[in-house]
C-alpha cells in the first residue's frame, strides 16, 4: 500500500510519516483561535468564514496549522492562553455580580442567584461562538444584558412570573447575528433589562458611538 493516496485526498510521501488526524477538540481550538483573531481585527468577515469552513472539515493537524500560520505569534500565543469554558455557574445570595471588560464568553452560563443583580456586559467580551445559552433558575434581582450590533437576545423559552420591564421576545432564526443569547429556565420576582453600551462623556462630546466588541 506504499504510495497510496490517504483519505485526506493529499498525496503522501512514502518516506515521510503519515499525517496526524485531527480530533473534534483540535478543530474547536482552531475555530476559537480564528474567531478571537477576527475579534482583534486580524481577519475580516470573509476571511473568517472561509477559514472556519476549512477548519470544521479539516482531517489533519497540518490542515489546521495552515489556517493560523500567518497570524502573528504574539496574537497566537495570547489567543492560546484564552480558555473558553463549557459552563460557568453564578450562584450568589444578594449583592451583585458583574462580567465586564475583556471577559471570555463561555458556551453556557448557569444562573442560580437569589435577590442578586447580575450584569453581563458584552461590549469588550471575547466571543468565540455564535450562540450563548443562559440556563436560569433566578429569584429576585435584575439581569442586565449590555449588547451591541449583531447581538440578539431571545426569551421565548424562559418562564417568567411576577417580573416587570420590557424583555425581548422571539428572534428570527435566519437573522444575521454575531451572538445569539438564549434565555431558558425560570425567573421570578425580578426584571430583565437589555440595552446597548452607554457613551462616555468624551464620546458624547465628540459624538462618537460607544465602543463595541468584536469576534
UniProtKB/TrEMBL annotation:
Transmembrane segments: none annotated. Residues 20-72 form the DUF1707 domain. Coiled coil: none annotated. It comes from the Bacteria. Residues 1-26 are annotated as: Disordered. Pfam families: DUF1707 (PF08044). InterPro entries: DUF1707_SHOCT-like. PANTHER family: MEMBRANE PROTEIN, MEMBRANE PROTEIN-RELATED. This is DUF1707 domain-containing protein. It comes from Streptomyces violascens.
Amino acid at each position: 500500500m506504499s504510495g497510496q493516496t490517504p483519505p485526506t485526498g493529499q498525496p503522501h510521501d512514502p518516506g515521510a510519516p503519515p499525517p496526524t488526524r485531527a480530533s473534534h477538540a483540535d478543530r474547536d481550538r482552531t475555530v476559537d483561535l480564528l474567531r478571537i483573531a477576527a475579534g482583534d481585527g486580524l481577519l475580516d468577515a470573509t476571511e473568517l468564514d472561509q477559514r472556519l469552513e476549512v477548519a470544521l472539515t479539516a482531517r489533519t493537524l497540518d490542515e489546521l496549522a495552515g489556517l493560523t500560520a500567518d497570524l502573528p505569534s504574539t496574537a497566537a500565543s495570547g489567543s492560546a492562553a484564552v480558555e473558553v469554558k463549557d459552563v460557568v455557574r453564578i450562584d450568589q445570595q444578594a449583592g451583585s455580580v458583574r462580567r465586564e471588560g475583556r471577559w471570555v464568553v463561555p458556551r453556557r452560563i448557569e444562573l442560580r442567584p437569589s435577590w442578586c443583580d447580575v450584569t453581563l456586559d458584552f461590549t469588550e467580551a471575547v466571543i468565540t461562538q455564535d450562540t450563548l445559552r443562559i440556563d436560569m433558575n433566578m429569584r429576585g434581582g435584575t439581569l442586565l444584558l449590555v449588547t451591541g450590533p449583531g447581538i440578539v437576545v431571545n426569551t421565548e423559552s424562559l418562564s417568567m412570573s411576577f417580573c416587570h420591564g420590557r424583555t425581548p421576545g422571539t428572534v428570527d432564526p435566519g437573522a444575521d447575528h454575531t451572538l445569539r443569547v438564549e434565555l431558558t429556565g425560570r425567573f421570578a420576582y425580578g426584571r430583565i433589562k437589555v440595552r446597548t453600551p452607554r457613551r462616555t462623556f468624551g464620546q458624547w462630546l465628540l459624538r462618537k458611538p460607544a465602543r463595541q466588541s468584536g469576534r
